[in-house]
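Record minuted for completeness.

…
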Amino acid sequence: MDRLVNTVRPYAWGSLTALPELLGQEPTGEPQAELWMGAHPGDPSRADRGEGPRRLDELIAADPEGELGAASTARFGPSLPFLFKVLAAGLPLSIQAHPTLDQARAGFAAENALGLPLDAPERSYRDANHKPEMVCALGEFEGLCGFRRPAEAAALMAALAVPGLEPLIKLLSVEDTGDAAAEALRGALSAVLTMDDATAERTVRETVAALAVAAPDGEHAPYAKIAEDFPDDRGVIVGMLLNHVRLRAGEALYLGAGVPHAYLSGVCVELQANSDNVLRAGLTPKHIDVPELLKVVLFEPGAPEVVHPVRVEATPGEQLYPVPIDEFRLSRFELDGVEREIDGRTPQILLCTEGAVRLTAADGAVLDLARGQSAFLPATGTATRLSGTGSTLFRATVTV
């Protein structure tokens, strides 16, 4: 068992206080957005096995089968298949979507062929992997997820009586299903992002003004808050094409390839494939590659499905958040004084989000995790016991 030393990424949208509170630290006065746990080369965790801190990706590369197990290595290759995070949003994140595996491989190769450095601001593909993800709320959490039905988006815009939105409303006034709906959504998104600068500036300004006088507790409320934070961004309009969703603590969302989304506020754990590929559509000063975005986005309308945990019969006390992929598996333990046990056939990262948790290995070794602390458990094949009272532990691993 390795206690992890993790990096906090200070993106501008991060909360000033949420991650310091979780980690038991004083706020720095700067936004703190994401706590990364894993072996992504962008910010790998570190572990000390008696020779000083070493990068987790380097430890795994030195002995992939010993760290990840034969089954995971055979299935997913010689690297940790997932990246685990705590995400703390003080401001909305960019509206974004992620590629399929084939799209990621092609895009990464194409940008390499152009000679773009991996940290180039105009780069969309920083690796050759896809990025399905799951978020699970640690408290009230708000976001945008997936497209509204075209008629719903049209009605939302029409209620604002903004002349510049009329072409979009006309595009969206179609049947709500099938190819017509997909083409309407594609046309509307493309129209917003390719609008000439003068028209876009005027339409966004008028939309922001209309949202400011809309009912403060009505359907426009989340979009009005976005407009306050991003008064000059086309993402204010793009956001109205998307569903607003509010999660309570313990509820989750799964986002597959191509699903447009933006997280607006709150704190969550996020588990994703080991990738940092992002195609943006608004609420950001960063590069927006419109043609590539339109290739990646899945234009399917419908309300997002909130994921609730289910009991795992084979592991008493474990609550699993089901997903349709095997590269990551997220579950939760609410420890109430009863000792629990997890198997050790797969690599896993354990994160304590409430109380304190004691991990006891088969050889009797003990590792105590306080709130905000995490551990990497190599695939030893032996079980680990969990104990704590009034404690919450999240478990990230794979399915093989």
Notes: Residues 162 and 207 are 6 Å apart (CA to CA).
